[in-house]
Amino acid sequence: MHRYRTHTCGALREGDIGIEARLSGWCHRIRDHGGVLFIDLRDHYGLTQVVVDPDSPAFKTAEMLRSEWVIRADGKVRRRPDGTENPDLPTGAVELYARAIEVLGPAAELPMPVFGEQEYPEETRLKYRFLDLRREHLHNNIMKRGAIIDSIRRRMKAQGFFEFQTPILTASSPEGARDYLVPSRLHPGKFYALPQAPQQFKQLIMISGFDRYFQIAPCFRDEDARADRSPGEFYQLDIEMSFVTQDDVFDAVEPVLRGVFEEFSEGKPVTQKFPRIPFGEALRKYGTDKPDLRNPIVMEDVSDIFRGSGFKIFARIIETSPQGAVWAIPAPGGGSRAFCDRMNSWAQGEGQPGLGYIFFVPEGGKVLGRGPIANNLGPERTEALRTRLRLKDGDAVFFVAGEPQNFVKFAGPARNKIGDELGLIKKDRFELCWIVDFPMYEWNDEEKKIDFSHNPFSMPNASVEEFLALDPADKDKILALKAIQYDVVCNGVELSSGAIRNHRPEVMKKAFAIAGYDESVLEQKFGGMLHALSLGAPPHGGIAPGIDRIVMLLCGEENLREVVLFPMNQRAEDLMMGAPSEATPKQLRELHIRVVKPGQSAS
């Protein structure tokens, strides 16, 4: 017989009744029923009930056991007595009558229990993460994560992609976040950087003549934590392809994402053909470039109805500002003064002056608008508004006004809040979409100059000849340029950004010159990449969906901490391992480094 087990704690079934078995695992729960001890023994694979009565030679040892002690139990498999079966357990028809128990690893008093799913403070959960990971829900999340990654790998290889590994120690590169720096012992005063993403390397792989690359890539960014962003490190499905258009990237990526979501959605519907929504349209309809399409509310510009109307506040905004607009946020089923007042109070809590509204009620055989805006707007315009928005008795509409670039950051959350409060969001599905046609440049009003809008290394959506012929002084034409850049979004969560890369050095130099960068700056920061592009680079593009976010969505979690093995806390600290920690004087001497803490003199 094996030293520790003949079966796992999830293996025994009715067909095993009568055999001698040996199990090893953790004491999940111990119950004393009139002197008979019932031990729920747990391992990675499942849970089996172990029974010890006073007649058993193991009883004396069993009386000492406590939660989370690791034991080995030997005994005979028998059928559970009638009425005590547990249909929720795969092993629920049988139990192990123990004749011998060996304590393999006693446990001290637990700082948090493993049995049950009680909420505990983040600090406790992270400090004792190894205990937290024993809990069923979190344990299952981590196993699901591994299965999802396996599925992604299979699907990528089936699409003709090959997995490569790129360097972890590399050069610092301005990617939009702070680098983690690693001092070099052999080169005093110089530093490596941990990669924020393998961006330059994966482009170099294409320039090297390989065709379809992918990697489950670790990325490191010294930035603040959020619910959907882990501090320090995260993983992404890094993808790059040669000789491709935007359509080719979409055709390769959609089956992978759709297939993974379908495989792990537990029957929830998944978008079959991802809609493509232009960036400007996404802002107008949803108030965000990360729209949650499970919410059916679509905003609409109703400035024409308020222009010259009796509601002077909105009319004045439209008349005095060339960009002034009024957007309507329909609220089906929100047609009560109580709900409208509650939303108005919420808006004030968000730092807004309020949230104007009209709600509709039946009166005299008609559906009439009510509220201060309706009273000033007048019945004809109110009816025109109701007809355009297809509102009925019991519905409402809310309004945001001003310059869209200023109010859009509030309009999007307002749409989400209304949809959530009214139960309109179809939470039992996965809605994916592409956001396309991002503006390549934007106007910086403070510095009175043109800036890059998003990714400066995307190819402009214009021919090379047209782009190179652009007059840098032609502001309107430049601001109308789109980049071949795209995001993929699921349920309001951005999974990834991607682009067709700017692979022509002359186009890249022109692109940076338009944004006010001297060629010497480009050479200094990206000279290596520019040189590589100048020696024969294929058109190429890619994307990098976030693994952690995909797993978070498929596990139904709202925080990445619930799907990462050993996450840091909000202050980028590893409470379990004590990182970051101070280096010893010897280590600092070897690295030729002095630590100057805040408030200390560097001299």
Q: Choose one word for the global shape.
A: globular
Ranges with pLDDT <50 over ≥5 residues?
none
User: Rounded to an integer, what's the Rg over CA atoms?
Assistant: 31 Å
Helix content: 25-40%
The helix/strand class is alpha+beta
Number of helices: 19
Largest sheet: 8 strands, mixed
Compute the separation of the termini in Å.
69 Å
Number of strands: 24
- Overall mean confidence score, pLDDT: 94
Strand order of the largest sheet: 6-9-10-24-23-22-17-11
Strand content: 15-25%
Description:
- Helix 4 runs antiparallel to helix 6 and helix 16 (505-514) runs antiparallel to helix 17.
- Helices cover 31% and strands 25% of the residues.
- The chain contains 19 helices and 24 strands.
- Strands 6-9-10-24-23-22-17-11 form an 8-stranded mixed beta sheet, sandwiched between helices.
- With 603 residues, the chain is an alpha+beta fold.
Summarize the structure.
It is built from 19 helices and 24 strands.
In terms of topology, how is this protein built?
Elements: E1 20-33, E2 36-43, E3 46-52, H1 59-62, E4 70-79, E5 94-105, H2 122-127, H3 129-132, H4 136-158, E6 162-163, E7 180-183, E8 191-194, H5 199-207, E9 212-221, E10 232-242, H6 246-264, E11 276-278, H7 279-286, E12 300-301, H8 303-306, H9 312-320, E13 325-331, H10 337-349, E14 356-363, E15 366-370, H11 372-377, H12 379-389, E16 396-402, H13 404-421, E17 432-436, E18 438-439, E19 441-444, E20 449-452, H14 464-468, H15 475-479, E21 482-483, E22 485-490, E23 493-500, H16 505-514, H17 519-533, E24 540-543, H18 547-554, H19 585-591
Helix pairs in contact: 4-6, 16-17
